[in-house]
What does this fold into?
Amino acid sequence: MAGGSGTRFWPRSRRRLPKQLLPVLGRQSLLQATVARLRGLIPPSRVLVVTHREHASAVRRQLPMLPRANLLTEPVGRNTAPCLALAALEIARRDPDALFVSLPADHAIGDSRAFRAVLGEAFAWAPRATAVTIGLRPTAPETGYGYLRLGARVGGRARRVQAFIEKPSATRARRFLASGRYLWNAGIFVWEVATVLALLERHLPRVIRPLRAAIRAAPSRRATALARAYARLPAVSIDYGIMEKARDVLVVPGRFGWSDVGNWAALATLARGRPGRAPVVPVDASGYVVFGSDRLIALVGVRDLIVVDTADALLICDRRHAQDVRRVVRELERRHLEAYL
Amino acid sequence: MAGGSGTRFWPRSRRRLPKQLLPVLGRQSLLQATVARLRGLIPPSRVLVVTHREHASAVRRQLPMLPRANLLTEPVGRNTAPCLALAALEIARRDPDALFVSLPADHAIGDSRAFRAVLGEAFAWAPRATAVTIGLRPTAPETGYGYLRLGARVGGRARRVQAFIEKPSATRARRFLASGRYLWNAGIFVWEVATVLALLERHLPRVIRPLRAAIRAAPSRRATALARAYARLPAVSIDYGIMEKARDVLVVPGRFGWSDVGNWAALATLARGRPGRAPVVPVDASGYVVFGSDRLIALVGVRDLIVVDTADALLICDRRHAQDVRRVVRELERRHLEAYL
It folds into this structure.
């Protein structure tokens, strides 16, 4: 799932270059790292990427080994459920008995080996459950993540999921962390394609039916048919649209340094900044993180700033306000400052 | 006196472009504004500019109406007393009976008309005093300025000066402000050239004698002679070297919106920022001042920042730390980052 628009990483992320296509951690983009991380478990010939039509050529450039038919494009973003539905229809066309993992292309994972071990275990459980998700031991009372409540053990590391919980309040998040009975929901699901299609048919017929009809169109008319279908689709997430209503969901808890890299502050924690070629000169400054271009940056008497310097735009943001970077993008849209979007 | 190096206005001011040559307020540089402000009182043919040798060509470009002989250059900066001495020697050569005003080229004055009226009054008193200075009614307990204590009235607005006081502590500055008996010392003096030379001879013979000898050298050898003399001169200010020891100094108090524009925070108060052509986008930001180039600048959740954006360097400074910008320059020197100096 490589469909994000990534407004929270402005000014590095732009409409044409959203977060998943940016090399925010290391040399690879988050998308490239996500595909590379599956190596040994899933060959590129069996990786499907779903992205916005505008980003198709960038994805092809970043993933040259990806077969052309494995790139599915959406004419417009409608959150994760339509993306999942589109992929499931294609997977079922190739193999109606397939097991697959659906996962976001814009997350960070520190320990790929541990991740693959957990994912392998999830695949092993998948035939015996509606879905197997991967849960992360919380390390902080995050209010930006969804949580899941652990149920009974079923064998190995796997447990039942009692409930999916939307982003909690700070008080609830602290209780979740203290109790030890909650995991972060990373939005990674392993399941049978037949089950996914059945779940969509049952809970989101308004999503799956128009899409099914559209992809049955003759190849020459498919793009138009998809565009018409998407224009009328509701924007709905997998969690809200399916998982909160599903029974018999299992979870394999993992510990592999996961982050959804939700904003500059989250990235700052992972990356400790990435200055450009020119130096950073602090004078009585602390807690700053610089993502730089090639300009020298001097910081005098400031605390806890995130500085993101690009060729045409500069962001100076208090770390605690990293979520508000989206508001900058909204303001740019309101002022019709297209050049910066 | 256009000899400042202006390290406190980095990154706009550089070695080759110090503060007095920058258009920090309006379209004119501070030097151009200083010369323009004398219009009607002193014609350009009688304006002498003393500057560092490195800045001579920039000064000529900025003041094309200035006769070439009226630009005096110093091979190295030695504070204001040697600068005054060099000018006084040249003035005395042209007219031993001259009255003149010595003034810094890098101050801001809001009301030029009021300034000229006060300066005219100072010229009227000059033949009857050692020096006539111009004092400003303090509007805040500034610790960055020198002060002078008011003595008896002598006629018109003029008063005796009881004492010159160096930059005071915060407590003293508040007392000065409350008492109403102290003025800011703007470093502007009107005096007879014969008196100035006598004061220098008496209080700073180590300054005036080597300079007198150097300018008597043949024209072809004068630059070398001056360079040798300056190399051995002490760095000393007019205030410390002469005024604190002088008797019979008068002051004409003025009110014309004066500032020594000592740092970015002072300039921010005068100018309320000067963004570049691209917009500034604040989100939950306040108290900021932007001196911009042509990049869009977004400020999120920050308070009281000064942002100075140039082609190769960016300054982000808390307003209360504006004095520390000098430390950035020192650090650049220490790291031998010549390109940014």
